[in-house]
């Protein structure tokens, strides 16, 4: 993947296909290539130019000590401008959805429409508790055994239906034992991306077509929270994918891709 300078920040990115531009924003700690297994091939076949990237904080993109929401929004906007994508379709998942929503508010001229998957507009008790626990572990210098951490990640991010399939569960646990971004070189950035800030009132000002996708079994960004976001954005459409957890776009790629392509190709009202 090539590296591009965006406002003084070096970002590792991938650019495939031709046609209307799509920028994909991954969740916290996820690399851009997360989208390459299922979503990128489907979107390229559908006639789109698709750009993915590793956000700042994930090597080989720059890894400053702290990454904030304004940083992430500025990087996305700068990448759209540098690559001549705008106004483009924007797809986000989890924290990437929060970035997509803020990008739609702060730079609407760069966004044609937005898909917000596994998103939330305000902090929830469970997400707060999990974030606090992760911070406490990091501050204490505790490193959980890879096997245990993999099992916990699977429980948090996958549907019970997936975990009930022994073969699928073993495959996912194997994947989750791989090092997290930034662990290999010890240079992971601290993310301070406003996850604890209530943005539902601000979302009333989004004036672009939006599709909100919730995953029925998502423990981290609940379907209820996704419905709240959809209700807050004027004219937004909500779709819920069954038998899917926080990584629903990987667990249930066919229905997710069908919804993405339907929304990205339809005529704007």
TrEMBL record:
Keyword hit for Transcription: no
Annotated GO MF terms: hydrolase activity
Short name of one Pfam family: Abhydrolase_1
Top-level taxon of origin: Bacteria
Presence of the UniProt keyword Membrane in the record: no
Domain AB hydrolase-1: 22-253
Alphabetically ordered keywords of this record: Hydrolase
Segments forming a coiled coil: none
Annotated protein name in UniProt: Alpha/beta fold hydrolase
């Amino acid at each position: 993947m090539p590296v591009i300078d965006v406002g003084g920040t070096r970002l590792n990115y991938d650019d495939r296909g031709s046609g209307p531009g799509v920028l994909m924003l991954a969740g916290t700690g996820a690399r851009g290539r997360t989208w390459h297994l299922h979503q990128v091939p489907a979107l390229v076949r559908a006639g789109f130019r698709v750009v993915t990237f590793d956000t700042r904080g994930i090597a080989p993109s720059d890894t400053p000590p702290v990454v904030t929401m304004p940083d992430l929004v500025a990087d996305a906007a700068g990448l759209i401008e540098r690559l001549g994508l705008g106004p483009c379709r924007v797809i986000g998942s989890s924290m990437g959805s929060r970035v997509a929503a803020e990008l739609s508010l702060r730079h609407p001229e760069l966004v044609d429409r937005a898909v917000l998957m596994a998103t939330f507009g305000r902090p929830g008790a469970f997400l707060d508790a999990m974030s606090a626990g992760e911070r406490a572990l990091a501050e204490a210098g505790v490193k959980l055994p890879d096997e245990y951490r993999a099992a916990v990640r699977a429980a948090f991010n996958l549907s019970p239906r997936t975990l009930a399939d022994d073969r699928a569960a073993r495959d996912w646990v194997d994947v989750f034992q791989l090092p997290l971004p930034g662990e290999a070189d010890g240079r992971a950035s601290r993310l301070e991306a406003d996850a604890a800030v209530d943005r539902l009132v601000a979302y009333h000002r989004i004036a672009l077509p939006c599709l909100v996708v919730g995953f029925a079994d998502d423990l981290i960004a609940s379907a209820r929270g996704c419905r709240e976001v959809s209700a807050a954005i004027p004219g937004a459409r909500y779709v819920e994918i069954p038998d899917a957890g926080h990584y629903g776009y990987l667990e249930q790629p066919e229905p997710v891709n069908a919804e993405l392509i339907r929304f990205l190709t339809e005529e704007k009202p």
